Every structure is written in structure tokens, then in C-alpha cells.
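Researcher: Last one for today. Full complex below.
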Amino acid sequence: MKVRSEKGRPRLSVQVVPLGPVDDRLLRVVAANVFALCQLPARVAKGGPLPSSAYAPQRQQYDAAALLKHLDGQRAEATLKKTIAVTAVDIFVPIFSYVFGEARLGGASALVSIYHLSDDLGKNASKTTAAELYLRAVKVALHELGHLFSMPHCEDHRCLMHYADSLEAIDGTPLQFCRYCRAEIPSVEASVEASIEASTES
Amino acid sequence: MQTQMRTMIVDDEKIIREAFLHWFEKHGHSAVAAASGPQALAKLASQSFDLIFVDIKMPGMDGIELLGHIKSDYPETAVVIITAYASIESAIEAMKRGATDYLMKPFRPDQLSLVMEKVRQQKKFASEYDYVKGRLEKMTRFDNIIGQSPPMQKVFELIPEVAQSDAAVLLIGETGTGKELIARAIHAKSQRANLPFIAINCGALTESLLESELFGHEKGAFTHAGQSRRGFLEIVSGGTLFFDEVGEISRKMQMDLLRVLEEKSIYRVGSSTSIPVDFRLVSATSQALGEKRRDGSFREDFYYRIGVIEINIPPLRDRREDVPLLVDHFLRKYGQETTKKVERVTSEALESLLRYNWPGNVRELQNAIERAVVLSRGPSLDKDDFSFLIPTTGRQLRESGTLQEREKAYIQQVLRENDWNITRSAAVLGINRVTLHKKIKRFGFERRGADL
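Model: Here's the assembly. Have a good evening.
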């Protein structure tokens, strides 16, 4: 199942999907920011329920790796269509007690969990506003999307690809890629050429 | 996070190894995984790591045991212990055994970042320490002579003092203790430093050759003396003359030299015109001259003339504390020369080097390190890499025979040890491959000969 543009050529695009119940406004904000910062077509698509197989009862959390596997399994096309799945549940990878998001370098799907994004007990116990929560989710989503484009972490702490391991770090990162990382984001045109090459090869 | 690190994760659980590998990959660190302690040690033997995460609970060799191995053989590698349960005892044990930190599974992302930052800081301190150590090392060496042991420090103290005067110096030390290096240091610290330093091995020259080399000759002084030539005593013109193996000088030559030292002038062979000379004499001997003086083959007056100041250079076995320093120095030297990445000697190997008697002194140690580096296959030299030292000592002392017999036997031994690899054997013997082939042919060695 290939996504085709008006001219019938496959194009690079990003879809934002909910995994389990998620506020629709949040999904639209994420998609809008992907379009704004990456200049890539982004839209909100229909999601699905959380797969029960990814639930780890002993940790009472969802296994991020299993969720990514589930998302990848739903899709055939990996190189041109990237998926950002947003979930409200608590997710983990085996070594960490929790993660804000997860994606593999060059993968097809990325995962963002807002579970720990509103939990700012360390600050002044004040409730996180929706705007704050959305902004954090957008930053995590763009960071994980970067990984899908094979971008590793960046040393520049003013870049979205900088490794942010706490809410403080996320809040301290501006909503922008540094110019070096910016150059790593594939453009729609480049992706069309790449796909033509790929199709002639096959 | 700024510096890329070479990391390894040792855990029997695949999902943990993978989680770490993914995390390291995103951070741009190189990472490998090992499923057990022995696997980790095998990887350590072939490449170096900055940081290793070790699960405390593994079947077979557990994390604490692995930590012990790593810290004893690769002390510069940081180890972080991962535990699944909060066990204060095991954490304390790990820290006692040299772990940089420990993490309790599962940990928060920022906890791992903190540990990485701590390791990065430690590495930074370590490299700063290495720099300071390097400067300190310069203080424990005198020109190219290395030693921090009290007897060597005493020698170092003597050198500048002696250098200031013009008195003749006699260096007494076994072969390979660095007599020429000390002679050069005395020259370098003296006011003659900018003038020539000429070393003559008196034992290597026949009396007539030595005479002609030292005094020079006039045209027609003897057969083949087609033109007149200046001798070293003239050429040195204000510099330092170094007589190695001064005990080998004949009585007649001793008398001639004595006259030179007293009159400060020479006559070329076949000439009756005296030429004024000016030089500082440093002599060296590897054998005590007492017996030669008693039996009269070494003149008393010459002995007192050349040995106004005597410096005894201790053999390596009397200053074993210098062995690690020397090992380190030669390791770096040959690591650079051969571009082989040999970074360390295991504690076991160092122990055997410390125990060894070093009859050939520093030169033997130097050759041993060079040989081991040339033949090494990994980043560290183990006890086995120096196995050639142990058997040869016993044999060297017991065996006798002509030089040719010894040469033949030694070449055979080296060929056998190196599986008849000509390049390797030639490297060990310090000759080129063509020479080795010639020797094999001359001695009639055959690969499958009954005697091999």
C-alpha cells in the first residue's frame, strides 16, 4: 500500500495516530508542528486500541518495544511513511523505569507517551496546563521523528535532538533543530528521487 | 555525553542488552554486548573499552567476579554494576572492588545520564592525571635514562655534578645497564655539550686498528695508508670521548693513552710532530678491574687516571621497582614504532617480569618488550607473551658451547617457537629475512628435520 501524490509518485509523509484514547487536539497540534518544523506533509490518522499483549502486568506499564513492533506490523511501507503514535499510558523500556518516547534509528514508527509529561511534582506541585503538556509532547514527538530519520542525539542543548531525560531538560530545549540536524531532515523532493531510485532497482 | 565512548554491556538477558545497545546507538557511542563474563573477557582481550555495564546476577561468573577481573587487568576501564534488587551489601561490595557506580534496574533515564556524565568526568580527570604523570615521569628520568629507585636517583644526582668538572669518569656496570646513555648525559650536561661525543668500543677493535682510529696516521705510515687521516683524539676536538669496555685495552695502548692524558698532545702514527688535543674522557667497564689490576694486565696508574670519579650503575635486579616504569616506557616506545595497539601488561605478566633476574639488564627488558609487542595479538601482553624469558634463563646459565653452536641452537629455538614463520622469527632475532634464510641454509635446517 503506497501513498501516492497527485502525480502518482510516492511521497514522504508523516501520520500522527492515537494509541488508545488521546485528546484529538493534541494530535492535531503535533501534526501541525511536524509540518511547520520539518516541512513535511503531516496529518492525523485513525489509530487503534492499545494491544493487550504489550502490557507488562508486573510493571503495570506498556512495553515500548512491543508497542513499536505492533505499530510496525500494521504497516508495509516503512521508508516513506513515518508514524508518530501518541499514547496516554505509561511506557517503559527494559532498563528504564519509564520513557517519554521511543523510536529506533531509521525505524518506521515512533512512540510518545504523555503519562510523565504532566507529572511535574519536582517543581511546585502546580498542575501542568494543557499548553505546557502539548508543547512537551510536540518536542518529544519531533525528537523521536528525528530518530526515524536516522538522526542520533545532538550535543547542542538548544537542539530538539539533544537528549532530554527530564521534564526540566525538555522545558529547557527550544522548539527548533540546530542547523546541522535541520539539514538531516529529508525533504519531500529528495524522498521522491530516492523512491524512484528504489523502484528502478527493484 | 560529548565524548564518544567505547562501551560494552554484559547481561545474560537479551532484552536488557538490546535496550542498552539502542540507547548507546542513539548517543553515538560504540557499543558491543556480551551475554556472560567469559564472553566479556574474550572481547576485552581483543579491544579496549571506556565503560562496561555489568549485571551483578549472571549464571557462571557473576558480575562481582567479572568486575574483579576487569579491575585487575584493565584498571582504566570504568565499570558500572547493574542490579535488579536493592541490595546494599552487593552495592557496597561492588564499590569496594572498584566499580564507578551502580544502577538499580529499572532506572530513570536521567540516572543513566548522570552515570555517563560521571564516567566522562572520570575519564577527563584520568587524562589530566596522565598528563601530570607524564610531567612527573620527566622528573624521574634523566635524558633517556629511566629510574625512580634510590640507587638510580643517586646516579642522576651525580651526573650534573660530575658534568661540571672536567675529571675523567669511570662508569662501572653490567652489560645493558645503560653506561653509554649515562656517558651521553654527562656530555650533554657539560660545557662541552655542543662539541662532538665519540663512543669507541675498545673491545671490538684490534690493538693496531684502535691505535690508528685513535691517533690517526700519516700517509705511508703502514701498508694501505694511502693518505693521512685524523684520529678520534683529534676529531673529538674539545668534545667527550667515551671508551666502552676500557678493560679490553692492551697494556701498550694504556701507556700511550696515559701519556696523552698527561701531556694533552698526540703523535699520529708515522709522525713525529705533536698535535695538541683537548677532550673529556668517560670510560666504562662491565667487569670489575680489580683482578686485571692485580695480575698486571691493567695498569694502576692508568686506572687512577681514567677513574678520578667512579660511578656504579646498579643492575636491574637490584632496582626492581624501576621495572614497571621501564615496561611502561618501552611499551609506549614500541607501540608507536610498530603501530601495534598494545596498551598494557597484565598484572600477572608484570609480576613475572618483576620476578625475573634480568641478566641482560635494561637492554634485555627492552628486547623482551619489543619481542612481545611484535608478536602480540591483542591490546595487552599476558604472562604467556613473555614465556620465552623463563626457559632461556636456565639454559643460558647451564649451556655452554661455541658461539656458532649457540647461534645454531638459538635460531632453531626461535624458528620452532614461531612455527617457522620467517618474518616473525627474523623480527625476534633482530635480523632481516634474507639473513635468516641464509643462516637456515648454512646450518642445514629443515622444517621437518628430526632435530626440530
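The mean pLDDT of chain A is 85. Strands of chain A lie at 13-19, 42-44, 55-56, 61-63, 81-87, 91-92, 101-103, 109-113.
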